[in-house]
Design brief:
Elements: H1 4-7, H2 20-27, H3 30-57, H4 73-84, H5 88-97
Helix pairs in contact: 3-4, 3-5
């Protein structure tokens, strides 16, 4: 599992305009780049969700009565932290432009006739 706190340090959560030529320089094809970024953003999204659920599970109460719901300041702070994180797509773009994403093609066997 990733350590999201250290991974996103220094990444601005704001979207900014990008030069498409930067992406093409890294992969040679904008469509390949979009595919790589999409897959990485999905991985990050799943990792972040798992990490958040794991942290919030510590505060879960397993009582059957609705009246016993109460606020937990630590739980609220954890939730606020995750709300302020950059979008997984922004994180994926930064990783891609910093050459932190490795990708390769699956071996495709030629048809033998």
């Amino acid at each position: 599992m990733i350590d999201i706190k250290t991974q996103v340090q220094g990444i601005s959560p704001n979207v900014k305009a990008r030069n498409i030529k930067e992406f093409i320089e890294h992969s040679g094809n904008i469509y390949e780049t979009i595919n790589v970024l999409t897959k990485r953003a999905n991985q990050l999204s799943n990792d972040i969700k798992e990490e958040l659920v794991e942290k919030l599970e510590e505060f879960a109460s397993h009582s059957d009565t609705i009246e016993e719901v109460h606020e937990n300041k630590e739980q609220i702070e954890i939730s606020k932290f995750y709300e302020k994180l950059p979008n997984p797509a922004i994180i994926a773009i930064e990783e891609f432009l910093d050459n932190k994403i490795e990708y390769h093609y699956k071996n495709i066997q030629p048809d033998n006739e």
